Structure prediction request, 644 residues.
Amino acid sequence: MPNITLPDGSVRRFEGAVTGTEVAAAIGPGLAKAALAMKVDGRAADLSRSIEADCRVVFVTRRDPEALEMIRHDTAHVLAEAVQSLYPGTQVTIGPSIENGFYYDFARNEPFRPEDFPAIEARMREIVARRAKFVREVWDRDAAIAFFAARGERYKAELIRDLPQSETITIYRQGEWLDLCRGPHMRDTGDIGGAFRLMKVAGAYWRGDHRNAMLTRIYGTAWRDQKELDAHLHQLEEAERRDHRRIGREMDLFHIQEEAVGSIFWHPKGWKLYRTVEEYMRRRLDASGYDEVRTPQLVDRSLWERSGHWEKYREHMFIATVEDEEKTLALKPMNCPCHVQIFRHGLRSYRELPMRMAEFGACHRYEPSGALHGIMRVRGFTQDDAHIFCTEAQIAGETARFVELLRSVYADFGYETFRVKFADRPDTRAGEDAVWDRAEAALREACAMAGVEYELNPGEGAFYGPKLEFVLRDAIGRDWQCGTLQVDFVLPERLDAEYVGEDSARHRPVMLHRAILGSFERFLGILIEQYAGRFPLWLAPVQVVVASIVSDAGEYAEQVAAALRAGGLEARADTRNEKINAKVREHSLAHVPVLAVVGRREAEQRSVALRRLGSDAQEVLGLAEAVALLKSEAEAPDVRRAGR
RNA sequence: GCCGGCGUAGCUCAGGGGUAGAGCAACUGAUUCGUAAUCAGUAGGUCCGCGGUUCAAUUCCGCGCGCCGGCACCA
Prediction:
């Protein structure tokens, strides 16, 4: 005799077990029609499940976030059925819902191609139109394994074999077709609707392990209705327009070419942007108690052997040799061992701690070819790197201090929110477990102190210590680690860093590896996408273009540009023999934030007509006044704060 | 690195076993114009590279390189 509590607090009493469908029907025909699934005491379940005990029930309708997930999951099942009916012999594996859609991994000798999509989609629509009921069945474990094995579904058989013994083995049928699945599902395939589309094919390793077979994955997107699908497709197009590779070319910021794969040719405008960011970071670090250093590019392999990098990362290091010398050198893949060398140079006292050693360190790593991506993932890059040498007791305070700086920097670049992940000990690591316990505990404590909320990223720490990852998102929705903070008890030991403590004895310092931007290249890529090339004035590589209307105003235009440059602004004159309309259009498309238009009138009055990007309003000011105004507007955020 | 796709002018793209095409950009000339494209003309190509098939390959086939999308990797 279950008492069922509904979200409005009302309680319904039933004589004996009832299904969700029956409960919904008892409440009203509207709900009976709209309910797709339910949550029993917070756990999602099929409407067909029977309820025997007292519980709280919430029905899931199409508008609920859970519904979207179910639509996607159900669509994945329909995709699998369609594929198996069209391509016999294809094995099914797994097919979850993901952000914006779903995928399904198939095992098939010949990978799918986008040309296969129309046929598959057509079959999927047939299956949806059939409105086949999703039917849940509980199977005996061994029977299930035998069943799938007999069908040649060895991946499914393996999945079931590896499920914990406590797990109930459930099968979902949709008409003739069935799949191993935890569920839940909606009522029938018709609930999916028609707002889905197959998007792309990709290879994917079975169980995400590169030693396993490569499966063929089909990605799709699915939504509640056509309008949502259209909006999503439109957003993808918009994202493509923001792509930093496209904007980099259009704005003439940088290029990459075959002779230097993974390294960037920065063009004048791109380098101007880079320098603006670098100078900003240098001011912030100077003001935050860091000391900047510079260390060698080429370092003998013996140092990398001592640090442990040679053993673990040798395959990913660029090695340099010279004919006359026997030495083997490596282009530095990171800066920390070099920074330890500076720390070790001379006897250190506890009074010097914490020592914050910063370097805009140019590093090279031989990244796998498939990992390269525009300027976001490259082989030659520069980190805004620093190492904080401190005592164990100083970890929490230094972490809090760092997070505060990072937040402020991100806010200055327009990022008010970002994600933080806590990556703990990986399987292969250096250092004793006891050391890891201390390092992880110290970092957790530091997060609490700094008020940092994080999600766990298990097993993803660096080989020498746990880390915080500060994650930003690009235009296409991909996440990139930018900032990081890593607690390291191992390297100081390996490279024998020590200081003299208050007790006159020698002690090991702790190292905090930390970066805010991560690499300039990656951060600039994300920044370009975030602003879609329309940078705020302080970052814009060309801040003002002075456009003359007639050739008589050409000389004055040059004077205006010179005056702006004298004021520290990046300004150029456009005195070409073009109509003002053409100039406005061109420089607007080039995302120049401010246009200063000058004709005969302005030349006579020694004034300028300012026009801001994104507005067609004109503001006529005297030249000196305009320079002062723009100069103040173009101040970097930290400079402005200091000036107040 | 693995799976799939792609590689034609500076850019965006069309084409196709036998003289390589457009728009924009560039260049030259005319035009001197008030806030998102003035007009006319000119020039521009190892059709990614190497090999093969063929009387003939940019086109078909193979290999390589690069790029794109995923997967794996990311000190």
Q: What stands out?
A: Residues 65-86 of chain A form the longest helix (22 residues). Chain A is about 35% helix and 25% strand. Residues 362 and 530 of chain A are 25 Å apart (CA to CA). Chain A has a mean pLDDT of 96.
